[in-house]
């Protein structure tokens, strides 16, 4: 049985966009949570996951889809106060990006 695998990068942590939309941060600065994420999480963790996914070479992997880059490029439209979960426009960007790769 052959399996075709499609890898998709994680979305970014869009702190700048969320801050511009009036993100509500936690009052506990030393406690990290979805309300108070580590500020360098995107560059120190998510970017590395993205790179690993895009550099993965395996015969079962037929496509690698980067949703991180288009979401980050359009973060002001793709995110509201929540820096983790995209808004409706963000999910549209994800869908459009995946659709282009699957054609």
TrEMBL record:
<dbReference type="GO" id="GO:0016788">
    <property type="term" value="F:hydrolase activity, acting on ester bonds"/>
</dbReference>
<protein>
    <recommendedName>
        <fullName>SGNH hydrolase-type esterase domain-containing protein</fullName>
    </recommendedName>
</protein>
<dbReference type="InterPro" id="IPR036514">
    <property type="entry name" value="SGNH_hydro_sf"/>
</dbReference>
């Amino acid at each position: 049985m052959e399996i075709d695998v499609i890898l998709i990068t994680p979305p970014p942590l869009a702190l700048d966009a969320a801050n511009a939309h009036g993100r509500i941060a936690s009052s506990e600065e030393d406690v990290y949570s979805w309300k108070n994420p580590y500020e360098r999480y995107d560059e120190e963790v998510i970017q590395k996951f993205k790179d690993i996914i895009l550099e993965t070479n395996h015969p079962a992997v037929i496509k690698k889809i980067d949703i991180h880059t288009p979401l980050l490029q359009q973060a002001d439209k793709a995110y509201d106060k929540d820096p983790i979960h995209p808004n409706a426009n963000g999910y549209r960007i994800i869908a459009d990006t995946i659709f282009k790769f699957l054609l």
